[in-house]
Design goal:
Layout lengths: L5 H10 L18 H4 L2 H17 L7 H16 L9 E5 L6 E4 L3 E5 H6 L3 H16 L2 H11 L4 H14 L8 H18 L3 H18 L5 H15 L11 H4 L4 H14 L9 H6 L13 H5 L4 H12 L3 H15 L3 H13 L3 H14 L4 H13 L3 H14 L4 H12 L4 H11 L10 H14 L2 H14 L3 H12 L6 H23 L5 H4 L1
Parallel strand pairs: 1-3
Antiparallel strand pairs: 2-3
Length: 526
């Protein structure tokens, strides 16, 4: 259960990082100053702050397999956009309402509900291509300028309503805090969050072009819009799914659907960039004629979409028991396909039924030999079922073949950490170290590395990683306290002290700004 006032606290936390803007200040017209209002570094900082706060309230679904799929999809679109040099960060939300949103710094959030409502990866790509265009065309930044002109805090105006809409929980609608948020949300949605019709039209047009360049089905955007419109009209879904929040900030009209259909027909099968199946393989001048890289067909066809959607179904359910019951209803309604059987195995694994999960995954591997999603799941299930030798052998083989695969390494390290002995901790450290250079912003890695170091008998590295975990999860003040405590140890060598001092210096400005705005870590105030 979420804290009763979590949504309100989130909105307030987002507001505090906004720079003050005097009411009498006159800003230049939109379009002439949007790109100078906030520099790229500031935009990145705001995006990081939002993501950290969402993690703090447990709204983000940080799963290595899902993250790999989502980032692969998002980066494919970003590279085919009009500004491929723009930095993007794609992340998944646990909420099952249908929503996606773009914010400062190229941070794009996708709700699990959007993926569950889609029937193909192309449809998810259609919505994300639209959000990418909002970033590349500075629609978000221009909204920030309007917010500052109206003396509304930047992040509260631009992100608060989107985050509230995405995360609102009807079961707490009677709470006074939720009532306060609802009132603020109405104003923010009306004055700040809603994109103009021209913004939406431009994002549709450029998003379609990005879809075409990246090799996705250009008709998928219209299909997804139609599905969302139908759901809003027929009030389909349960209490958590029935209101497509995406339609509140990106109104889907019959005209927009018609226009996207026309754009798809105009683009047809023309693929303008190097991201089509043909462009990557058949016509690639860097490859011998006729050579097709292994696995390309699956990637181009969105072969992982089914696994990703069903893994999200299992992980976004309130409890593993509810997820298993949901698959029971699907089975009674018409049987389970392979992807749904995989999702059921994930739910059983979460529920502690390792042996049952292993049986299901073994059966699936007969039809999908060598599939990484199934192999990782089977190794985890074997470990949970007490078959440690089989699990270790499977994981060691995967690590040997893919030593830098985040999903493989983190899954194995977590299994090792569960054994709670020094030998397992040292092995976990060994396999995690190759990922350290690229995992500075990865809270799952930091948490796993912290635990591995802890049981391996390395308290300094463990303390650093736990502090980093706190910081990435929106607890900057707590991270600073942990680092200052760690710095007092007598056994620090020169390099450890230098690392800790550097992180203290980097985190302190954020903590001071939060304190200046009156925001303190509630756990530290007790």
């Amino acid at each position: 259960m979420r804290p009763p006032s979590a949504t309100l606290a989130l909105a307030l936390a987002l507001a505090v990082v906004a720079p003050s803007a005097p009411a009498q200040q006159r800003l230049p017209d939109i379009g002439s100053s949007a790109d100078t209002l906030l520099g790229p570094t500031q935009q990145q900082e705001y995006g990081q702050m939002l993501l950290a706060q969402l993690r703090h309230y447990d709204y983000v679904l940080d799963d290595p397999l899902v993250d790999t799929w989502l980032r692969g999809l998002g980066n494919r679109l970003a590279s085919a956009s009009d500004q491929p040099e723009q930095s993007f960060t794609f992340f998944m939300m646990k909420d099952r309402s249908i929503n996606a949103f773009a914010t400062l710094g190229g941070y794009i959030g996708t709700n699990a509900g959007l993926v569950l409502a889609a029937e193909s990866e192309d449809e998810v790509a259609g919505v994300l291509a639209h959000e990418v265009a909002h970033v590349t065309q500075a629609h978000v930044l221009r909204g920030v300028e309007r917010a500052q002109r109206d003396s509304v805090p930047i992040l509260l105006a631009m992100l608060g309503a989107v985050a509230v809409a995405a995360q609102s929980d009807s079961r707490s609608s009677g709470n006074a805090a939720m009532a306060a948020v609802a009132g603020a949300q109405g104003l923010m949605v009306q004055r700040q969050i809603d994109y103009t019709r021209s913004n939406e039209s431009e994002a549709d047009r450029l998003g379609m072009r990005t879809l075409s360049r990246s090799g996705y089905d250009t008709a998928a955007m219209a299909r997804m819009f139609e599905r969302m419109q139908a759901m809003s009209r027929t009030n389909q879904g349960g209490e958590r799914e029935r209101l497509p929040d995406y339609m509140r900030t990106h109104p889907v009209t019959t005209t927009r659907i018609s226009e996207t259909r026309q754009l798809a027909e105009q683009l047809g099968d023309r693929k303008v960039g190097a991201f089509t199946t043909t462009g990557l393989a058949g016509n690639n001048p860097l490859l011998p004629p006729g050579l097709r890289p292994g696995g390309l067909e699956q990637s181009a066809a969105g072969g992982q979409f089914g696994w990703a959607r069903e893994r999200l179904r299992a992980l976004s359910a309130d409890t593993p028991t509810q997820a298993i019951a949901e698959y029971g209803r699907l089975a009674r309604a018409g049987g389970l396909d392979d992807a749904q059987r995989y999702g059921l195995a994930v739910a059983q694994l979460r529920a502690g039924n390792g042996a049952e999960a292993a049986r299901g995954l073994e059966a699936l591997l007969e039809s999908h030999p060598g599939d990484i999603w199934l192999l990782v799941g089977l190794a985890q299930a074997e470990a949970r079922a007490g078959r440690h030798s089989a699990a270790d052998a499977r994981f060691e083989d995967l690590v040997r073949r893919m030593p830098r695969n985040r999903a493989v390494v983190l899954a194995y390290a977590e299994v090792l950490a569960e054994r709670n002995n020094a030998e397992a901790g040292r092995r976990a450290q060994d396999i995690l170290r190759p990922l350290m250079a690229s995992s500075g912003q990865d809270p799952v890695f930091q948490r796993t590395f912290a635990r591995a170091c802890e049981i391996a008998g390395d308290p300094v590295r463990s303390g650093e990683a736990w502090a980093e975990t706190a910081y990435l999860n929106g607890r900057a003040e707590q991270a600073l306290v942990q680092l200052n405590t760690l710095r007092k140890r007598d056994d620090l060598d020169y390099y450890a002290r230098a690392r800790i001092d550097a992180r203290i210096a980097a985190i302190t400005p954020t903590v001071l700004e939060l304190r200046r705005q009156g925001v303190r870590d509630p756990d530290l105030r007790k």
